[in-house]
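re the bet — no i am not wrong, look at it urself. input seq straight from the record:
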Amino acid sequence: MPHSPAEPAPNPQTPAHHRARPVHWLATASALAAVIAGAGFLQPERATGASAGPPAPPGPTGPASPTPSADGPAAPAPDAHAVTYPLDCRGAPQTVTATAEGDLDGDGRPETVAAVRCDAGSGTPPHAIYVLTQDKAKGSAPRVVATLLEAGRKQTATDLTLRDGTVTATLHGYSSPEVPRYSPDTKQLAKWRWTGGKFRQELTDSTATGV
């Protein structure tokens, strides 16, 4: 199933002769991510013939706990370790380093958000962040329906959470190619929320620190 990656938000560039200093970012950038879900995400099952409606707002306590339906017990969240991700590791294995679960569209069925990177054995491989869903049909497998962060952005993700319908992660990156890969010097707070048929991304730059 096709899915579209997020449009990369512009990263501030630091001149090479200033890279040793802490960088203080003052601006807050909001980017509209072009992450459009696949045909089965946030929509009724195809067998019903129903059309998709607007996502229902999450409850006041957030969507972390799936709501039991009239058809039976609450559905489990998709298993992030049962998926082969569209991440080219050139023969190296893929590693899921963090997951978060919750109902992103208010239908009472949880989705899973997974931070994945190549297990290269050394260095600091960049992360990709994916959204997984699973059909109601018995025996259906979890599948990737959206890419929130592409590995090509060369960022690492920490503090992945899903709360009140919002995915949040801290992204660590590099202000220039000369910055050592083991010492990222930029940091952004990223938020994604499903709105109007796509995930909308908000990036807030903060004081750069080594990690």
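see?? Residues 7-40, 43-70 have pLDDT under 50 and may be disordered. told u. also Strands lie at 28-35, 94-102, 111-118, 128-133, 143-149, 156-163, 166-173, 186-195, 198-206. so pay up
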